[in-house]
Each structure stands twice: as C-alpha cells, then as structure tokens.
TrEMBL record:
It is a multi-pass membrane protein. This is TonB-dependent receptor. Residues 397-891 form the TonB-dependent receptor-like beta-barrel domain. Residues 622-632 have a biased composition (Polar residues). Its main location: membrane. It comes from Pseudoduganella plicata.
Length: 930
C-alpha cells in the first residue's frame, strides 16, 4: 500500500501539464502544500499548485478540439485569434512548402513559433517556407490522441529555447489511456465534393499503480478529396474565378493568360502567339475557341484569353497515416521510464497550371551562364522554317502548353520520432532526462515539367529529331515520342533531422513568507541537419523551374536555470536565464515575471523576456538559394499606383507577381528580441473568469529579404525589352518587370503590440445541464517593420506583409466565441470565428493594391471585408460505449470576401478557405469496447 501511494505521488509530480485552462482557474493564495498536486506548466520547469502563472498561457482541451469539427490540429489552431499572418493553410498549394501546415503566433512567422510535442522539439519540415523559414509541420501530429494544447503567448522561453520569439505551442498527447476505442467519421461539402474520411483506433493497457506499466498505441488514417477551382467558379461568385471582369476588373489580372497588352507585350497563350520581328506585335495562332474555357474574349486584343481556374486546384488531395505509441514503466516507487515512437506519412497532390515555354528561371551562376538566369521570353525560340511561323524569320513566342496538360505537385512527407527517457525523484529533486531523435523526408515530384533543351530544339532547330513541335490547335500532330522527351517529371528528396539529449530537475528549497522557493535547472544538446536539394534539372536552367536549395548542419548546447520565489503572501516573483552556444554564435537570454494576488479572486501579472535566433541554413548557407514571388506595383511602369498607359504600361503592371532571387548570406547576424506582457486575471463572480493581457514583442536585427517593392526598383532588375515610349522617347530598362534580386540582410527591427482578452462563464442550469461560454479577442494595435533608418512599414490592418506573410494580411482584430451546453447524454456546441476587415493595400500609406478597369478601388472602400463563420456540433452518448457525433462548419454558408490581391487563392484569401469550400457536414461515431 505504501509503495502504491509513492508510485502515485511520482506520477503526479511528473505529470508535465495541468488540467485547468487560462481564465478558468482563479489566482491562488499561499496554501499548505502538503496535499496539493503540483504540476508543470508550459513555459516553466517548476511545478506549482495553480495553473495561473506570470505568463499568459492558453489551453485547448481535448473536448474543444474534437467538438470543433476540424479535421486536423492545424485546421483548428489556424482558427485561433492568436494565429496570424505567415501561417500555412492546407490549400496553399503554390507555396514553397506545399503539403505542410504551420501556425504563426502574433503574425511573426512560423520560424519564430516553437512547436513542441509532449514538451520536446521535432525535426522541421524538410523544405523551408519561402525558401527561408524553417518550421514544424503540424500535419505530422495525430489528432485523436491529443490530450490538450498549451500555447505560451508572451514570447521566448528560457526553458524550451530562446528561438521561441513569438511563443510556444506545446501539443500534449494522452499518456495513460486504457481500453480499446474505434472512431470514424466522414465529411462532405454542400456541393457533395471535398469528401473526407477518417478512422482511428486507440488501445491502451496497464495501470501504473496496479501493473507498474501503461502502454498506449494509436493509429489514424485520413483521406481527403481535392476540390478544383472550377468546381466553385460560377457557383460562389468570384470564388475560384480567375476572370474578375464581371466584377469590374480589367482583363489583365494575375490569374489571366493569353491577352495581348500592346506592342511587344503579350503573355503566354494556350493557342500560341508569335511576335512579328519587324513590328514586334504578337499575332495569335488560330484555334483559340477549342483550347480555352473562357468564352468571353472581350479585351483580349487579338489574344486567346484563358484563366488558371481551368486547371488549378483549390484544395489538394490528401492521404495520411499517423501512428503513435508510448510505454511508461514504473521501475521502482521513485522512478519511471518511458518510450515514445511516432510515425507519420502524408501524401499531398495539388494540380497547377500547364507549363509555359517562356519562363525566366534562376539558378547558381556557372561558367556557361555567369549571370545565373535565363530569360526564355526574350529569346527567338521559333525557327524561320517552323510551319507555324508566318514571318519567315526567327521569332519570339508566348505559349502555355495546354496540350501537355497541367503540372501536378506531389509532396510525400514521411516523419519519424523516437523518445526514450527516465523521470522521477532523487535526493529531493524531481528530474526528467531523455534522448529524442526525429527526422523528416520529403519527396517532391512535379509532373509535366519541360525539358528546356528539347523545347528549344523542337521549336528552333530544323536538324533536330524533335523538330517541329506544333503549338495550340495543331498540337495533335506531335508524336508521342516528342512528348516523352519534352514533358518530364522533376523530383527532389529532402531530409531534415534533429537529435536532442536533455535533462531538467526541480525542487523546493527553503520557505519564504508566501511559500517555498522553487528552483529548476536544465541542459540540452541538439544537432540539426538539413539537406534540401533543388528539383532535378533546375541547377542549370534545363527545366522550367527556379533553383531552390538549402543545406546545413548545426550544433547547439544550452543550459538554463529558473527560480520561483513567493516573496510575500500573494506576491510571486519568477526569473530564468538561458545560455545557448551555437557553432558561430552564443547568447544569454533572461526572463522575469511577477504575479501579485492582493485578494483571492484577482491577480496582476507581467513578464519580460529576451530571445535569440541564429540564421538558419536557408538564410546563411553559402549553398542556399531560392526564388520567391510576391505581388508588387512596378515602380517604373506604375509609379504611385498609376500605370503609365500613354507609354505602353497597363494596369497589370500595378499588381504584378514578380520573382526575386534570394541567396544565402554567411555574413548574417542573429536576430534578437525583447518581449513584454502586463495583465490581470479576475474572477468577479462564481463561474466567471476574465484574463486581460497587453503584449509587445520587438524583434531586432531581423533576417529578411530586401522588400519586394524595393527590390523591384533596383537597376539590376530583369525586364523585358518592351520599353516605355513617352513623347516619342524610348525609356531604357523600362520593360515589363520579370525578376529581381532580394538578398537576405539584417533589417532594423519589427515591433508588434496588442491586447488579448479572454472571458469565460460557467452556468449550472440544474435539470437543464451545464452551459460554458467563452470569448477570446486578440487585438493587434501595431505591426511595424523598421526596414532601415529611413524606411518603415506599418502592416497592422493591411493586406501586407506579402514578402513574409504569404500575402494573407494582418487584420487588427480576431475573435473566437464558444458555447457548449451539456444536458443529459447530449452536448451541443457552437463556435464563432471572426476576422476583421483589412485595407487592401500592401502597407499603410500605400495606394490601393487592386483597381477596377475604370481606375476605382477594386474592393469597396479599398478594403477586404471582414469574415465571420459559425460552426455547430453535437454529440450523443448513447451509452458508456457508443457515441454519435455530427458537425456543420460554416453553417450559414458565408462566402469568403473578394480578395483580388492574394496569390495564395483565386478570388479569396487562403485563410478564409471555409468560405470558399462552403457549408461542410460531418458525421461520425466512436465505440469503446472496454
């Protein structure tokens, strides 16, 4: 019996988490600690008797997660008010890290958000977002076995890592499950597409007290159908429609192809267009009507107008498997050993557009091409003797190869994780030590890419076996052997790995007036490796894709210490310091906090913290290079937001998707940060809890590429030779902007500040059950980037920052409101998610980013309207074994607001995907056998 009690006490001391969420547990006064369970809270290694700390921590319970109706952990986290610009949604298929998902706290980017699984790091996704930002892929986390999610919202953590500049997301999985449970659900949209099927099995056995062990295993399978933009175009207005002319926009929007803008100015056409070498005017080849789904050719100016929704997916096809097991063994009354093994495989397939014959591709300079790029659009690709050349002289073309078909991007990610550790009590200390190894292998396969050497020979070399290649309506004359040589699959296999040895210990020391002094110490050593080679053929411009690669191998050793001092009754001081030693850098980062509880139901709290992030392999590696895209207004052809139409510019130049080459810079210095929070926790009435926290994070010496709007103004920018002609004078180097350079550099700083409000109310309704209400509001007052001494950008409330936020925008306010009613065997829940309106500008003070054909703002008041969705769910516990559940997302079928600027989706913001998919239904059941 004594042994049993000691075993239980060890389990409680080493629980590694707490059961009450932020705002639901009042501030605690000093108490007799002998009968109080002490637990560890994310952000601190010192166990305590109250969930409230000096740091604001938001907790998502298992019930909240499962009631939401969301299919994955990432989908749920991206609805939270604390998530901001820079997160990666499932539907962002044309991004660098397509096939992955990520959260971005405070809009500071996924690379500044530390994601943990059971309090430990995971290997990052094997391809950096935007070719720069390393992050943890949330898709690898199994959903059904999540116990809770703790979100530390006040910035860097001395315990987990100084690089957690924006905060920590700690996903904690179930550790002591017993029984056998099967669960399955199926979902479909109101259009009977986007079908999703999930099934899971969880088995656990053993009781730590009775059997001295517990073992749990979980397996999940998910399959989700793709949704094409064409499945929504015409059904939900502008959603999925590349053609925005019905809403007053000009022909030349970013998802339109084939139109001719004027002399020496045309873009890729599915019919094929050939330039007259004398007049430089483009002439479209015959047969347009049979090649394009766009029937209205008004404004094409002799071109063959097409839109990318003819091919491109809105949501990818996904198939995934998640396996997880954990064994806990009670070695003796004071010692536990544990092992965790995780495996995840996620295959994503995203259909894009057919290849263009005239891209501009960038790659590392070589002896044959010291400039490091090839601008195929400025080459005379079509031989004089080509049957489709009407001019009898070598000519330029513009061709989108619809006959080859759309390119499909396949991202197959395999993630493995192993943890082994021991924890317990010895010599008055509670300790936990372990070894963690995880790796990620990402296989990218891009189908229907072009072998550019075959393409050039097939169009321009009469002596080649591949000549002639017929474009457009005559493509049926091409032999299969030509396509076999021309259309190739490009592939790469990227790998990342993380190995960590860690140790931490805590104990109480002597008594202070408010309680016992707590101390914690810890150390870790980790090694990270990244090998992210570029797609085969992109290293020299021989396929139609830019070179994207990063390589790195780094070691980090760290030690830290933490104190918790209840110096007076109701006054608790905390302090921590961490020292990190990198290969080329080192840092000492402190953290301090105070919590004052003058009365039992009211507490004031505040923290100060510092952070440190060394350059990642994609940023500082000499072998690293990437080319990203962002929407800019060409400062030469569209100065001040007004196109120089008299000189030959068009409105397209005012919202141009431009590429920028980013090369690793070994001279970069680390980023540093300072964070502040000040707030209160108040329980004014029984069942009522209020938490209000102000926060500010300043990230200095930032690692950023040169802003795209500044990069576009560089005299070295690559342009077409359709120069402006003003008053009869040709303006040199004023042609259509194609590509520029945006080197990584240390900017000045970014400062983000705001306020979070969390209000909860619990109501006991007697025979009518229980009702829980809650609302969380996150207000971003300022999101200021000081790029240099003379240039600053304010992004709060705007569509930017497009350079590093995926052009998802930075709304000032986000709100989550929840209600959950338990009555008898039933539960009814509702969630309301609100995103504030945003100015449709790239940054404060900039002109409207989207204009109608008449020159007026492209959206009402030059704003992206606010967006609100309501989700409902219900659960019926038939008996102790059987449960049925159902949910409806976007109950009122709200349509996502028009967003003509974003490049992540067609006509809508990618973070508003539920408004593009439409009302979504789910039905499911679970059965627990024992």
């Amino acid at each position: 019996m004594v042994e049993k009690m000691m075993s239980r006490s060890v389990r409680l001391l080493c629980a590694g988490g707490f059961a009450a969420s932020l705002g639901l547990t009042g501030a605690a006064t000093a108490q007799d600690n002998t009968n109080i369970q002490r637990v560890e809270i994310t952000g601190s290694s010192i166990k305590r008797a109250t969930a409230e700390t000096a740091s604001p921590v938001q907790v998502v319970s298992r019930e909240e997660l499962l009631r939401s109706g969301k299919g994955t952990v990432a989908e749920y986290l991206q609805t939270l008010a604390v998530d901001g610009a820079g997160s990666l949604p499932t539907g962002f298929g044309n991004g660098f890290a397509a096939g992955s998902t990520a959260i971005s706290l405070r809009g500071l980017g996924a690379t500044s958000t530390l994601v943990l699984l059971n309090g430990r790091r995971m290997a990052p996704f094997a391809r950096a977002d935007d070719g720069q930002k390393s992050f943890t892929d949330l898709s690898t986390v199994p959903m059904q076995i999540v116990e809770r999610i703790e979100i530390l919202k006040d910035g860097a953590s001395s315990t987990y890592g100084a690089d957690a500049i924006a905060g920590v997301v700690n996903i904690i999985l179930r550790k002591d499950f017993r029984g056998l449970e099967l669960k399955a659900d199926t979902g479909w949209s109101r259009y009977d597409d986007g079908k999703q099927n999930k099934a899971s099995i969880t088995y656990g056995q053993g009781d730590l007290e009775e059997d001295r062990y517990n073992w749990v295993v979980n397996a999940e399978y998910m399959q989700s159908d793709s949704i094409a933009n064409s499945d929504r175009s015409g059904r939900r207005g502008y959603i999925g429609a590349g053609d925005l002319r019905p809403w007053g926009f000009p022909v030349g929007t970013q998802f339109a192809n084939g139109f001719i803008s004027g002399t020496n100015n045309a873009n890729q056409s599915v019919a094929g267009a050939v330039r007259n070498p004398v007049t430089t005017n483009y002439v479209t080849l015959p047969g347009c009507a049979g090649l394009t789904a766009t029937q209205d050719q008004t404004g094409a100016n002799g071109g063959c107008l097409t839109h990318v929704n003819q091919w491109r997916d809105m949501q990818p096809e996904i198939e995934s498997v998640n396996l997880y097991t954990r064994g806990t063994f009670q070695v003796n009354p004071a010692t536990q050993a544990y092992v965790e093994v995780g495996y995840s495989k996620r295959d994503t397939s995203f259909t894009m557009v057919p290849p263009s014959f005239t891209p501009t591709v960038a790659f590392p300079p070589n002896a044959q091409n010291p400039q490091g790029f090839i601008n195929y659009s400025n080459l005379n690709l079509l031989a004089a003797s080509h049957p489709q050349n009407p001019f009898g002289a070598p000519a330029r073309i513009r061709y989108l190869a619809g006959d080859i078909g759309p390119s499909v991007r396949k991202a197959n990610n395999e993630f493995k994780r192993f943890v082994a550790g021991i924890k317990g009590s010895a010599f008055g200390w509670d300790y936990d030590t372990g070894f963690t190894y995880s790796n990620s292998e990402l296989q990218l396969i891009y189908t229907n890419m072009l072998n550019m050497n075959v393409m050039r020979a097939a169009l321009g070399d009469p002596t080649s076996q591949y000549f002639p290649y017929y474009m457009g309506a005559e493509a049926g004359r091409n032999p299969a052997s030509l396509y076999a040589a021309l259309a190739v699959n490009a592939a790469s296999l990227s790998k990342s790995s993380l190995a960590v040895v860690d140790f931490k210990a805590s104990r109480e020391l002597f008594a202070l007036p408010g309680g016992n002094l707590g101390i914690a110490v810890g150390a870790e050593h980790r090694r990270e490796k990244l090998s992210n080679p570029s797609l085969s053929g992109s290293e020299n411009g021989s396929i139609n894709s830019n070179y994207v690669a990063a390589f790195g191998d780094s070691k980090v050793s760290a030690v830290y210490a933490e104190l918790l001092a209840p110096v007076l009754t109701g006054v608790e001081l905390s302090a921590a310091v961490r020292y990190d030693k990198y290969d080329n850098f080192n840092s000492t980062t402190p953290k301090a906090g105070i919590k004052w509880t003058p009365v039992k139901n009211f507490a004031l709290r505040g923290t100060y913290t510092e952070g440190f992030r060394a350059p990642g392999p994609a940023e500082g590696g000499t072998r690293s290079q990437s080319t990203g895209n962002s929407t800019v207004a060409d400062p030469v052809r569209c100065p001040g937001g007004q196109a120089l139409t008299a000189g030959g510019a068009t409105s397209t130049d005012c919202g141009l998707s431009v590429a920028a080459v980013k090369v690793g810079n070994p001279n970069l210095q680390p980023e540093t940060s300072k964070g502040y929070s000040l707030g209160l926790v108040w329980d004014p009435f029984d069942g009522t809890s209020i938490a209000l926290d102000g926060w500010k994070i300043k990230r200095s010496n930032e690692i950023n590429p040169l802003p795209y709007n500044e990069a576009a103004a560089l005299p070295t920018a690559i342009r077409s030779d359709n120069n402006l002609v003003i008053n009869g004078q040709v303006i040199p180097n004023s042609g259509t902007l194609i590509m520029t350079q945006a080197p990584y550099r240390n900017s000045s700083f970014t400062e983000v500040s705001g306020v979070d409000l969390d209000v909860r109310q619990r109501l006991r309704l007697g025979e009518y059950g229980r009702l829980n209400l809650g609302v969380v509001i996150s207000h971003t007052a300022s999101w200021l980037r000081q790029e240099s001494a003379t240039r600053a950008y304010q992004f709060a409330g705007t569509h930017g920052n497009c350079d590093t936020s995926n052009c998802a925008g930075t709304p000032k306010n986000k709100v989550n409101a929840t209600a959950s009613w338990d009555i008898g065997a039933w539960n009814f829940s509702g969630n309301v998610n609100y995103r504030d309106k945003m100015k449709n500008i790239l940054f404060e003070g900039n002109p409207c980013a989207s204009l109608l054909a008449n020159g007026q703002p492209g959206t009402k008041n030059c704003e992206i309207a606010s967006f609100t969705t309501v989700d409902l769910s219900t659960r019926w516990n038939v008996n102790k074994q059987l449960t049925f559940f159902a949910s409806v997302s976007n109950v009122f079928d709200k349509v996502a607001p028009l967003d003509p600027l974003t490049y992540g989706a067609l006509g809508y913001n990618p973070m508003d995907a539920s408004g593009a998919i439409g009302r979504y239904f789910k039905l499911g059941a679970s059965y627990k056998f024992f």
